[in-house]
Protein 1
Amino acid sequence: RAKAAGGNCFRFYTPDMSAESRTRMMRHAALRHALDRNEFVVYYQPRVDLKTSRLTGVEALLRWTHPQLGEVSPVDFIPLAEESGLIDSITDWVLRRATQQVQEWTLRHGRPFTVSVNLSARQLRNEKILASVRQALRASGLHPGQLELELTESALMEDADTAAILLKELKRHGLRLSVDDFGTGYSSLAYLRRFPLDCLKLDRSFLLQNHSDEVSPWKLAEAVINLAHTLGLSVVAEGVESEEHLAFLRTTSCDEIQGSCISAPMPPEDMERLLCSTHSEQLLA
Ligand code: C2E
Ligand code: MG
Ligand code: MG
Ligand code: MG
């Protein structure tokens, strides 16, 4: 197995290690070379205005395919990248790639939209991200207002004072900031006011309706959307999968939606095709 997986990088494991920790160690070693060997691709998932059905933006979602290990989910490799410190150079690459791509699309198709890049918690405790963002904007020529950074609730809470200072600095450059997966952590909306946020991404768990619950999560979603608006944040519902989800969201004042009911994350070629078709003017039936 070690041999098949590519030789001496994996020599540290011993037969008594669990299969799980062996997989982990192999991925760890392989991740070090993923950037140099061009194994990453940025996928894009559309975001749509619920009222006009128009494309408003795309989220950049990283994909890694290793020649032997196959496709590894970001849910698995992002934590490894965080532990090993590789996350800074990976994010730097995603920022450059995504801003360059969206600037190209903007120039070619004439309709500006935003691109959102996910940040990890530890990147809010480190000034490196400022240089990465400045570099990506300068190199691509993308308008700063077309770049959005997504931060999870827990990332904001971890070291809130440091994060607040860094986010204010980022905000000075004119980009947009959003809180991702809202509702999965323990922060209150009121607490989030200390950060210069533009947008709240409602976690998809709000749409997983359970009729036996005392208070339907859908009711909660509605309350959160209204409160977010009171605080001046726009709201994106994520994980919108079905007509039922869509019909519910249309009864609320939710601003945008993202999810498989529009499209799964797709490779740049497919996104390109979508932009070329008149269909992108009207992404919802
Ligand atoms: P996220 O930022 O919350 O991204 C949304 C995830 O939900 C994506 O999973 C997307 O494919 C998935 N999704 C979209 N629509 C639907 C839907 O209708 N139903 C369901 N069930 N899922 C949907 P993905 O691409 O596997 O990414 C997972 C997580 O990995 C992301 O969650 C983000 O936290 C992290 N991630 C991905 N790319 C990057 C990156 O470049 N940098 C960092 N730091 N994290 C990343
Ligand atoms: Mg995200
Ligand atoms: Mg999310
Ligand atoms: Mg999520």
Protein 2
Amino acid sequence: NAAQPLLEIKGLHAGYGEIEVLHAIDLQVFEGEFVCIIGANTAGKSTILRAISRLVPRVSGTLRFAGTDLATRAAHEVPTLGIAHVPEGRHVFPDMGVEENLMLGAFTARHAADLPERMERIFELFPRLRERRGQLAGTLSGGEQQMVAVGRALMLQPKLLLLDEPSHGLAPKVVEEMHDAFTKIHRSGTSILLVEQNVGLALDVAARGYVLESGRISLQGSSAELNANPAVRAAYLGI
Ligand code: ATP
């Protein structure tokens, strides 16, 4: 593929204070791709997403998005470049309604004329949110709050959606709904980088993946290749 990747990470070392968490990470997401990062707890998966969003100090390496050097940008500029990040643990504003939460997602596009249409598309994706549009987000179920968190990110109409453990702690049926939504979001043209501890699910929805072990990429390949890989099966799929 001669095309430039949408997201290009090369030789990234990053961490917190003195502690380096990521060691020489190389990772790419091409336009229109659905890519996952899998791996055990504390492998550093969330740290990769936070590094992209400029929420951890980059120690060294290359972080480029759509031709922009992310290292020169502050965290608050990242959404304006077309990257939306749904962090782990669904951070909704509990005392605000569903619609208000969604509108907050459009903060960099406050004056866009098509905000009602954007919201309408989110309600098509998550019909349960339409029924509950006036309800305080803090009173929603965990799954519904996660829908709000994802919907809020989509209000930006991002080029790249970063999803951190979106199915964590949700009932299997809700996880399925969520993953159906991701497939639809991807089909509508949004590139996705998904972090998941549920490896089976991740490889089901994403086309390609990276395995992260103790801050290093140990394996990468198509989801079919990773699914068939004996090491992946033994370590993550319990087979
Ligand atoms: P999890 O699913 O548990 O979040 P993960 O693979 O996403 O796992 P990270 O959250 O990226 O892992 O954490 C990687 C390492 O970085 C861990 O050892 C963690 O303790 C450390 N770490 C994460 N955030 C901070 C922080 N703000 N300050 C110091 N260390 C941190």
